[in-house]
Specification:
single chain, about 250 residues, mainly alpha, two-stranded parallel sheet, globular
Length: about 250
């Protein structure tokens, strides 16, 4: 508070909250004060469009974004009943719906299959409705992957993977400046006697399976290691993106 006073920065105490991150079932109760007033304790808080909950699961954020995406999707369905142009229909979806589902996906990508399917279901609903609008037949038995190929689209899970790897490329090639994030990347030193396929990045061991699948840097290294043909050094960003298009 002294620093704030010296720099003439004032807090609105009513808007300040206390949020404690913990995965314990029963959290210890602490009362934090600011300018002599006790801050309201909350279980989650929105910050720059991302909802941080006390367990850092981002489940509340994902649920809110899915609701917002369905709301925008309903608006498209209602306002484009006479639209027969597939390209325009896709542009509306890409502009109004998909950004809700992909915002900050590098940080809050869902680990639970429940949320992965819930996010993908939004695009499934759109692509089936688009097929009906263009052909007047509802694709009851068409496979989702076939419809994606028909309309030259990628699944949202594939797009999240690509966004993750593109950020990883930028980080390793000094297009994103963060010495802290770089310090978290571990390169694997191979044993000259091994005949196994070389794994470029060493994944840190953790007692928590959830941490291995949710920590962004760990996910980046794990995802890259699963594609042995990818080149991430000495290639341009455009060339790296072309590699991602064919995996």
């Amino acid at each position: 508070m002294e620093w704030c006073k010296e720099n003439d920065l004032h807090f609105n105490i009513k808007k300040c909250k206390s949020l404690r991150f913990s995965r314990k079932r029963e959290d210890a109760v602490f009362h934090y004060k600011l300018a002599g007033q006790i801050l309201e304790t909350v279980d989650y808080q929105d910050d720059l469009g991302i909802v941080f909950d006390k367990k850092l699961s981002f489940n509340i954020h994902i649920e809110n974004k899915i609701k917002a995406a369905y709301s925008s999707l309903g608006f498209i369905f209602r306002s484009s009943k006479d639209l027969k142009n597939g390209s325009t229909y896709k542009i509306l979806y890409h502009t109004l719906v998909r950004p809700h589902l992909e915002y900050a996906s590098i940080i809050r990508a869902p680990y639970a299959n429940k949320y992965q399917q819930a996010i993908e279901m939004v695009q499934k609903k759109f692509i089936r409705r688009m097929q009906y609008r263009l052909t007047s037949t509802y694709p009851l038995f068409d496979h989702y992957s076939d419809l994606l190929q028909t309309f030259c689209m990628k699944s949202l899970s594939d797009r999240r993977r690509n966004h993750l790897l593109i950020f990883f490329y930028k980080l390793l090639n000094n297009q994103v400046s963060s010495s802290h994030l770089l310090s978290l990347i571990n390169f694997n030193v191979p044993d000259h006697r091994t005949r196994c396929k070389f794994i470029l990045f060493k994944i840190p061991q953790s007692k928590s399976i959830l941490l291995n699948h949710t920590a962004p840097i760990t996910r980046m290294m794990t995802t890259f290691n699963s594609f042995h043909s990818l080149e991430i050094f000495d290639v341009t960003l455009s060339h790296f993106k072309k590699q991602l298009m064919i995996i």
